[in-house]
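#onboarding

Welcome to the new folks! Below is a worked example of what a typical request in this channel looks like: someone posts a single protein sequence, and someone else replies with the predicted structure as tokens. Don't worry about understanding the tokens yet, we'll cover that in week two.

Example request:
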Amino acid sequence: RKTPRGELFGPKERGTVMHEVWKTVWDMRPPDADCPTLRATLACAWDGAMASLSSKYPLVSDPRSKPALADMKTKMLRIADAEDDFERSARSAGIQRVRTFTELDLPNIELEHSIFAGRADRVDFLSSPHGTFAVISDYKSKGASRYRESLQLAAYAAALRNSDVAAGGVRYLCHGDGTAISYWSQAAKQALGQPRAPSCEEKIELALEKLLAADQIAADGRYEANYDSPSCAWCGHSAICRRSERRGASSLDEGDLE
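Example response:
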């Protein structure tokens, strides 16, 4: 995507730095009930993380980046507050974080014609009265509305399940509005007291259906455009596709072919 005029940090740069800071924060935070809040850990780690990242990403130390970095910090602190609230709620239900992995390469999902691979931003292993399970979290820069139908993390959960790891839930941590979208397994729902919303198992089955469909597409060698996909609205290749012809010439005024 294009970087707004006069702004050094585009979406890609912001996302890269944000992920690096979160990795630093979680690497320094122990899985213990008496550890500082995530907000406190993030606030403590911020200056050191910026100093460390400036050698890797020169834009971080550019004075013109200060507004973008300040905005990023504010959004990350909101997510930290949401995570602290969740952790307090989980502890009251007898759930304790045992271990956290960041940037974890997941087991491949091998189908007849394709191999699907993924890397999770974060995987927490939680112990509960119903057993130990894994929760997959992903950092998103936009608001929650964009990810409600996403099956990305459900596919990640399917990969864990295939390696005999119990997937207790998936969580999209949305920095755009400071909220989290969570889908929990039936066991985790009982422990957390969250009976509503689709279950993680239901999302996994939907994700597997999509992966099987993609595998069949690879086998057939027919890659037909799907203009009804939600991703179509923000695809970066609109200038070379024929979507505008399907919608009529008036769509040129709607920014399809910029």
